Each structure stands twice: as C-alpha cells, then as structure tokens.
Amino acid sequence: MQAWQVHENGEPGEVMRLEDVEPPTPGDGQVLLKVRAANINFPDALLCRGQYQVRPPLPFTPGVEICAETEDGRRVIANPALPHGGFAEYAVADAAALLPAPDALDDAEAAALHIGYQTGWFGLHRRAGLEAGETLLVHAAAGGVGSAAVQLGKAAGATVIGVVGGSGKAAVARELGCDVVIDRRSEDVVAAVKEATGGRGADVIYDPVGGEAYTQSAKTVAFEGRIVVVGFASGTIPSPGLNHALVKNYSILGLHWGLYNTKNPKLVQHCHEQLTELAARGAIKPLVSERVPLGGAADAVQKVADGLTTGRIAVVMEETA
C-alpha cells in the first residue's frame, strides 16, 4: 500500500515521504481500516516536527482523524493508532473507539467531525457550561477548530464573536454564522469586543491560539466569564496572571479532549450522538475548504502548519472521492 512516512523530524513538506509499505497488522483490540478520507489537523504538523505530546517511533505515518471502512463494510470515524496514521491506504485503530460515520456527512466531512467538534462540544458544554443568550468569543474563528466552535455556539443559542486574521477569513467567519467578526490585522480586538458587548465582555472565550490571543481574552472576558484554553497554535504558551483572574472573577479552564477517551469513554460516545443529531438537522457541517488526493498530503499538512488555511483540508482517496 501507499503511505506517507516520516523518518526524521522537521517541517512536514520536507520530511513526509510517500512510500510503498506493507499494510499494518492490528494489535490486540485493534482493527484494520481502509481509509476513505483523512482530515488534516495541526497536531499532524507538530508530530512531524517532534513537538507533539505523543512522539511515535520513527518512521511513522501521520494522520490522526479518519473516515474509514471496516472489513465488514461499516463506515466509521476513528483516531488511528500511531505509528500507523491515516495518511495511507490502510490504518489501524482501537475497535472499542470506533464511531459510526453520520449519514448526513460525506467522507471528508465525517473525517473532520471528530477531534475539532468533540473538542468544541466538551469545551463549550462540559467545561464552560455555555448557555443560550450568552456571548461566545472564538479566536481563529475561520480555522478548523474555531469554525467548529462557532457552529456549536450558534447551535447552543449564543451570540458569537469571531476573531480572524485577514479579510478572506472574515468572510468565511460571517458565512459560518458569526454575529460579529473582528479582523485582528486591521482592528483593535479589545476595543471591538468591548464595543460589541456594551463594555461587558464575552461570557465564554474559546482560545486555540494562545500568545497575544490569550492576552486579549483576559482583557475582554466578562465578570464570572470563562476562558477555555484549547491549544497554542501561535507557538507561545501564555503565563496567566492569577491575580487578574481573582480580581475580575473569571475562570481559566483547560481542555485536553484526548483524556476523555480513557477517563470517560461513555461521555465521548454521548458527545458523538449529540454531534450526529446536530449534523442530521443541519445545525453543524464541517467546513472542508479543500480536498486533495493522497499524493498531495505533505503540501497540505505544510499549509496547515503555516496557518494558510480556512476550515479543514481533507485527504480523500481517489476511489471514494
């Protein structure tokens, strides 16, 4: 089979190589899956760089989120078990963690439903307790993770403010349903949020960026608001001023969705059922901005690494395109 292999750490476009390899052999409790589509996530770039919290042995195949077909013909979504990731014709995954692919979504959309939307659902509902009528601010609102949070926030009845970088991404954020869009490249984010909220600030802030975005979050969070720390796409991990959180009465909430797979897998299943229902009625639909064949995976991962994308890029196998 063909699979992208990483033999040394570095930039994805330089270290990913498309090779002919033997199909992976499932271990205990695992199943072999025929990949139909693989969604590209920022962690795929971090894996190539050797900067992710999980460091699979070299060589490995990246690709942490797929829509695939089981040997008995079921269409599922899964997180492949590294080092046998999803940028390949076949991958392996834990049998107990397979989830049915929603009928309302095609292969590329289904592949993009899992990590970003589960993260958004857990962040907004499980951690922050977002309620209808509240104001949600989403950083990187046109990106893969941010776009999921925007749709989930609107589905929950929140007023959504999206922060983006550039006019093109601003247009995407409006199409996603943001009530207010702020272009951080041409506007003062703090001033714009305060103007949009009458000086009150946002009740919930969803931050997959870190760095300067977190500084803005602390300045724009409402009294008794909640900042959900999802990731650090900026490359800078902020150091929160806890004295500021104390005097302003807000919460800083961490979210590592992957932990729920081991600590509360039933809740992951419940979340998937909720997402499937939302997809069935059209309340959420992964924004797949680009679909590329397997041969284009390395360039696509590099685009994600460089922050040049809106929504998701999916690697789609030719026979299921």
Automatic annotation (TrEMBL):
Residues 13-315 form the Enoyl reductase (ER) domain. SMART domains: PKS_ER. GO terms for molecular function: quinone reductase (NADPH) activity; zinc ion binding. Transmembrane segments: none annotated. Residues 1-24 are annotated as: Disordered. SUPFAM superfamilies: GroES-like, NAD(P)-binding Rossmann-fold domains. It comes from the Bacteria. InterPro entries: ADH-like_C (IPR013149), ADH-like_N (IPR013154), ER (IPR020843), GroES-like_sf (IPR011032), NAD(P)-bd_dom_sf (IPR036291), Quin_OxRdtase/zeta-crystal_CS (IPR002364), Zn-ADH-like_protein (IPR051397). Keywords: Oxidoreductase. Residues 8-20 have a biased composition (Basic and acidic residues). Pfam families: ADH_N (PF08240), ADH_zinc_N (PF00107). Its EC number is 1.6.5.5. This is NADPH2:quinone reductase. It comes from Streptomyces luteogriseus. The lineage of its organism: Bacteria, Bacillati, Actinomycetota, Actinomycetes, Kitasatosporales.
